[in-house]
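Re: beginner question about structure tokens

> Can someone show what the tokenized structure looks like for a real chain? I only ever see the sequence side.

Sure, here's an example I had lying around. Input first:
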Amino acid sequence: MKKKDRDKLIHQRGLAVFDYWRNDWCLFVSQVFGATLDSDQEKILRAVQTRQYVSVASGTARGKDFVAACAALCFLYLTPRWRRNQFGNIELAENTKVILTAPTDRQVKKIMMPEISRLYNKAKARGYDLPGELMTYDIKMKNDEWFLTGFKADENNHEAWSGLHAVHIMFIVTEASGISEDTYAAIEGNLQNDSRLLLVFNPNSPVGYAARSQKQERWTRFRLNSLTAPNVINKRVIIPGQVDYNWVIDKLQNWCTPITADEVTSELDDFQFEGQWYRPEDLFRKKVLGKFPKVADDILIPPQWVEEAHRRWQENGRTPVSPSLNVLGVDVAGMGRDATCFVHRRDNWVGGFRVFNSGGQADHVKIAGEITAERRRSMGLYVSIDTIGEGAGVFSMCRENEKERNKDYIVSCKFSEGTRGKYGRELKDTTGQYTFLNMRAYLFWAVRDWLNPKNNTGAMLPPDTKFDEEASEIRWFFRSDGRIQIEPKEDIVKRIDRSPDRFDALANTFYPVKRANAIDLERLSMVIG
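And the corresponding structure tokens:
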């Protein structure tokens, strides 16, 4: 074979191999770097290959920075595109930029770049001469529009984030819980074209951008638990450098309390390891389980409660055939909100959240028509409508659509109204101890009581990441008079950047729709007592 033909064949085979790598980043990492990824790391890398937003909360020494380095080099070398120009020379047609950042310079220089350097040098040792010059903070190419660079995230220097545009661009943030909201806003301003944002962090704080990334639907979310690391499962070193069995045993003894099976409660993240139940301290949650610290006392709904309700729904989520309580909660969109939300609650079972986009205009007729259709399919259905603002018009239309004897099935739910019954008695929580500022506080707390595992309600809730985020972002407090108050909706909107429509709709289903019967019982008890 002539040299020209042999070179052409080698080139074609090289292109074929490169296409394999582009289609399978895990194969590139294995063949070029000789690296071993565990199953969780492979899932993360495959997600980064195809998804724009990926969030990884991790326990200690679980390999989060290593898989981030793998993702960085895969993106750097597998996404650029080339073409032959009019002079027959190869030139860059689609450029690629990779930006690494962290709260401190030390984290960039001593943690992120060393992982990059080890992989880069290992590839060269295996005979793969990767393009670019490896430097302290960079991999610098001959073409200025193709590079990898790392620098400290400085919340006071937004100019550092300007102009970082490319056909293919990737941002990787390590210790992501330590980065300011302003910095993330600057990063998101660059996420155009083929872009990625990968967050890796120990879950040190339950609030902030990184914490929300573990709740929001647009993110592909992972949690690396040290208890499931290969070295721990096998009780020997399978992957050097990752967390080992002896370290975990030491933390079990020092950061956990052994408990019996009848003491187990999900809200405290109790877990079983090698046949023994444990209750973790916050250090163990963060450093081993890869979970956020125990939820602050002012959070209305701990995420663990919601997860339990999701699990029950998935395992036993059959619609009750003849429910004793059948309510449709409706939260009507206004001009400043983008969706109307419907949700059914039949006893302790909740159906999926149905969301109708309003396009900035409230369509009362359409919403009332949907509600009337629901009523005709289920004549025993109560409909609890938020009648503050836009909902008032929908309520009136729905009442007009009903026969006189059925009008009471259409219920006006005003969050601002008081919580006293006809005879002056307060609506209280399940313990009979707490009273509330208004109906909104009572209904929100009713959702909390319903989801609280201690109450054994058997609550079944369909998985919905937006509801999960809303529930875990709502805060409450005691007023000076001892009543419970929920924070203003504006404060919630500011944190999650939207109205908590799903939570509001579910709260509506807890409105005391059979209030007449409740009042009769109240009067009877007063006569007897």
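Each token stands for a local structural state, so reading them left to right follows the chain. The first strand starts at residue 53 and ends at 58.
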